[in-house]
Design brief:
The complex is a heterodimer of chains A (291) and B (352).
Chain A: H1 2-32, H2 39-57, H3 61-83, H4 92-114, E1 129-132, E2 135-138, H5 139-161, H6 163-173, H7 175-180, H8 185-207, H9 219-232, H10 238-257, H11 263-277
Antiparallel strand pairs in A: 1-2
Helix pairs in contact in A: 1-5, 1-6, 1-8, 1-9, 1-10, 2-3, 2-4, 2-8, 3-8, 5-6, 6-8, 9-10, 9-11, 10-11
Chain B: H1 2-5, H2 10-19, H3 26-37, H4 40-45, H5 52-77, H6 84-101, H7 106-128, H8 134-153, H9 155-158, E1 164-165, E2 170-171, E3 175-176, H10 179-202, H11 204-214, H12 216-221, H13 226-252, E4 254-255, H14 262-275, H15 280-296, H16 310-325, H17 333-351
Antiparallel strand pairs in B: 1-4, 2-3
Helix pairs in contact in B: 3-10, 5-10, 5-13, 5-14, 5-15, 6-7, 6-8, 6-13, 7-13, 10-11, 10-13, 11-13, 14-15, 14-16, 15-16
Chain lengths: 291, 352
Amino acid sequence: MSTFLQLFLRSLETGGIFALAALGIIIIYRTNNLIHFAQGTMGMFNTYVVTFFFTTVGAPLWLAVICGLVSATLSGAVVDFVIIRNAKKVTASGKEIITLGLIMIFLGITPMLFGVDPLSLPKFIPTGSVSFFGAAISYNGMLNIIIGLAIMGFLFYLLQKTKLGLAIRTTASNEYTARLMGVPTRSVTLFAWALAAILGCLAGVMIAPTTSVTLNLMDSVQVNAFIACVLGGFQTFYGPVLGAYIIGVLKNLLIYYVSSVWGEQILYLLIIVFIVFKPWGLIGKKTIKKV
Amino acid sequence: MASKIMGTGAGKTLQQNGRKTILHNPYFQFVLFGVIIACVPLLSSAGILRSSYITLVGSVLIYSVAAMGLNLLFGYSGLISLGTAGFMGLAAYMSAYLTSNLGLPFELSLVISIAVPVIIGILIGLASLRMEGLYLAIVTLCVSEVLRKTFEELEVFTNGFSGKTAAYPKILGFLQLNRDTTYVLLVVALVIIMILTYNLVNGQTGRAFHAMRGSVVAAQAMGVNLLKYRLLAFALATAYASLSGVLYVHFIKYTYPSTWTMGMSLNILAVIVIGGLRSIYGTILGAAIVFIIPDLLLKQIPVLGQINGFSYIFSGVLIICVIMFYPNGLIKVFPELAGLFRKKKGKGESNG
């Protein structure tokens, strides 16, 4: 039982990281109607910025993270301002190609600025752990869980209760009508891109201590965030978050009980089978296109 | 043709028809293109080109084959596949395993190495193509992650990180090829693929693809079975990618897990976007731009060219610019230039 509880607590941590990344993807999907493939790569880039400020400049970790968040905001805003805003005439799949092009640009810029050697980023709280009913979790893990939940709680409050949230939801449901109604959709999109980049950066900073900071840092997070969106459905904001936590639990269970090497791959295959039976996700419903 | 003659441009069309020689026959053009490309080994043995260019041009031809398949998929049905590199790698490893470890003849191994990825591709397509296009991208991303892990971990089959080797192919059991003749084999394969693609997009299937591209709903109303044709496009893309993987492993002779990553899939996508969607020559032009220019030109630039990843930035920026400002691809530069030229000439004549 204590093993299971331990796995569950750790899943909350990984699930939270996936949920942050998935939220970034879904916010872009809902407001811009495109899949943001570069979410993970931009998160990776901004994690490099954090690592750079921490190791090379020598700033304390919290300051480095703030620098990373600023750079994330800037990079998200620049992408929207320079590219997406000027690509109104491009088809939907064309815009997805643009985000794929962004992946290539960030993959190229990162080693150019920060070198090719793998770097490392420490945990916020290096040592210590608490135990619940025999299951131990490190202080840092606790912190990640709490930060993740707090950010998501804040975002859902923002989406549901504030004027900005209303603007985002209106843009998500129909951009054209939203503009007619006086919603400043341009600022909403700009905000969405910056927010997505911030969420990606946070996910990167949380995952970085478990591995080393390389170009592939976010690959697995990215894929998991995508399948969390598929699992939860693309139609709601909370569906992917729910999906992310389910993926986190399933992944750790598969890795612990089935195979440490193939656990994650089995999960991907299970998701593909899941699509066959429930193509619109757990919460999503079929969208009908009108001609 | 008859219907073309009616209308305003009648005189011009007639004139063109009259001038139509064997040079305008597309099949002849494909073969001629092949013959010209096949001369590279001759030029290098004559000392005009460096011999390393054979490998470079050869790999461009290989990537062109894979890109041609992706062009069918993305260009016509707008579906994005991120699994190109995964399928190429699978076919490459399979062919290397079948010929080196099991000693099967090249032809048989070629057929098996194409058939298995295609079957996997059809299964994936059945799972993901019933929904909107975005699902195929995500599912193929998952599959390529699974395949990449397989290449790294399944050491009996792939030899893990140290990579797998293969020999130059032996055709019909007695004709052992070397580097130059394998290069010719690549050219032959590419020309066959070009002719096949040309026939496909100009035949009944191509009509259905065109209809799908124009409007999915209209195509369905005209009786085009959406799932069937999307599945066909994806299966073809997988088959082309597999063929390209087999050619790769028998030409380059090594395959490593690090080759078949997301970056490779993105490069192949860059090829078709930059070169030109739905264009056969555009695909080859795109492959040349994406794979030759970084190698030949960018490395010559001092400081910047020495840094890893500069070629990625080059392709990435080019993709975004082409999509935003020149969505038909760089191959359209030539007809537009010719048009400009003709206009000027026409003006000059009317003035004179």
